[in-house]
Write a structure and sequence with these properties.
The chain has about 375 residues and is α/β, with parallel strands linked by helices. The protein is built from twelve helices and twelve strands. It is about 30% helix and about 20% strand. The strands form two sheets. The chain has an eight-stranded mixed beta sheet with strand order 6-7-8-3-9-10-12-11, sandwiched between helices. Bound molecules: adenosine-5'-diphosphate, iron/sulfur cluster (SF4) and magnesium ion. Iron/sulfur cluster binds next to loops.
Length: about 375
């Protein structure tokens, strides 16, 4: 019988080669993360001073036994000041890995920022701005931005709250971190004020509760109040309402919208729900298999979607009883992240594909000052030919 080669099967030799290669790269990246560096090494400048965050050609990888998973594979987008940017795409496309990279929360040694820039305009106490390239910051300096200038709200607040401490103890702790001289009474007053701000009617009761005593919606409010305690300039909310039921979802989104005004800052809102994007975002970034395939203002993406994937997303109508990802009912599969092809990753699912699509991965084409698309249909020579 002829031997059939299973493409998923790795020989012992291949496994050893992967392990050796991984070890070498991880060692270099870990040393870079753990180095001591003068601030001047990671000071940078914004391309456009109207932006608070500029992500440029970010590559974040997981070095696994099977090979390198290029979870984020050359992502670039901006977050303007006072704007909400929605990042959308189906499960596994790299949304969370992008946000974890900005927060420098990727789990090493396997998860690493491999290359690229994450420029963030931090505000000094004096009111002056200082631009840091977060990707180059030693991990020991990350407190300059993480949890202070940039706060994150996760999908499942239960995993971010400590079950053995009361909400009050955890909220007070945030105040002590940012204001080490505060008294117990001052910290409590600040915590109660924060709980009030996120619309909690009886803050004293929540203050004395343990996380498991609260509903999911209430826990998410607490997480938002915690994120706010440090006056962040940027809030990253990763599927903040996915675990909540529909009426609570709407309340939490209203709250986020209010807060953006209150903190006079920006929001990066990650979701697979186009309805939420339409309602909340000023700009939209559409991701597919670790890359940005289209980005623009919310009007451009909803009224003039160009990429066949974005067009497909808009056509697939969500139903009330559908669970999370049935929204993405475009048939076909995403390529294996360890072995991405050189051509367009959407090719196997694309109904508009032409001969050109078997060639190189399409470059980003600018179609308006704010609208960009990565698809051969919009190449100059395709349009003219
Ligand atoms: N710890 C990990 N080890 C290996 N691969 C990972 C790990 N975490 C995430 N990935 C991979 O990274 C890709 C992007 O994941 P993620 O950013 O979580 O997607 P999502 O868009 O759903 O938030 C996926 O292919 C996922 O399998
Ligand atoms: S580049 Fe080709 S295969 Fe890819 S989305 Fe555009 S038309 Fe489809
Ligand atoms: Mg995610």
């Amino acid at each position: 019988m002829a031997k059939v080669k299973n493409s998923n099967h790795l020989s012992g030799k291949e496994v050893r080669r992967i392990a050796k290669d991984n070890k070498k790269v991880i060692k270099r990246l870990e040393a870079y993360k753990n180095r001591k560096a003068d601030e001047s090494e990671y000071l940078s400048a914004m391309r456009d001073s109207a932006n608070i965050l500029e992500i440029e050609d970010l590559h974040s990888y997981f070095f696994t036994e099977q090979g390198v998973v290029k979870a984020v594979n050359g992502v670039s987008f901006d977050i303007p000041k006072n704007a909400t940017v929605g990042v959308v795409g189906e499960s596994g496309c790299g949304k969370s890995v992008t946000s974890m990279s900005v927060m420098r929360l990727l789990q090493g040694p396997a998860g690493q920022i491999y290359s690229g820039e994450i420029r963030f305009a931090a505000k000094e106490k004096s009111g002056e701005e200082k631009v840091y390239d977060i990707a180059k910051m030693p991990i020991r300096d990350i407190h300059k931005v993480r949890g202070s200038q940039i706060a994150m709200i996760f999908q499942e607040p239960m995993t971010s709250l400590n079950p053995v401490f009361t909400i009050g103890q955890q909220l007070d702790e945030v105040t002590f971190i940012h204001n080490p001289g505060a008294t117990k009474e001052e910290a409590k007053a600040k915590s109660i004020e924060m709980l009030n701000l996120v619309g909690i009617a009886i803050p004293e009761r929540v203050y004395n509760s343990f996380p498991h005593e609260l509903s999911g919606g209430m826990r998410q409010r607490v997480m938002i109040s915690m994120a706010l305690a440090s006056d962040p300039r940027l809030i990253i909310a990763d599927e903040p309402t996915t675990a909540l039921d529909v009426t609570i979802q709407a309340q939490i989104l209203d709250l986020l919208r209010d807060l953006k005004t209150k903190i006079d800052g920006s929001i990066m809102l990650i979701t697979h729900d186009l309805g939420i994007i339409a309602e909340m975002a000023d700009y939209v970034v559409v991701m597919y298999a670790g890359r940005v395939i289209e980005k623009g203002t919310v009007q451009e993406i909803f009224h003039n979607p160009l990429h066949p994937y974005t067009i497909g997303l808009q056509k697939s109508k969500p139903t009330l009883d559908s669970d999370s990802d049935t929204l993405f009912n475009i048939p076909g599969n995403v390529p294996n992240p360890i072995n991405m092809p050189n051509y367009c990753y959407f090719k196997e699912r694309c109904a508009s594909c032409t001969a050109k699509c078997a060639g190189d991965y399409p470059g980003m084409i600018q179609v308006s000052p704010t609208h960009f698309v990565a698809c051969h249909l919009y190449d100059e020579d395709t349009k003219n030919g």
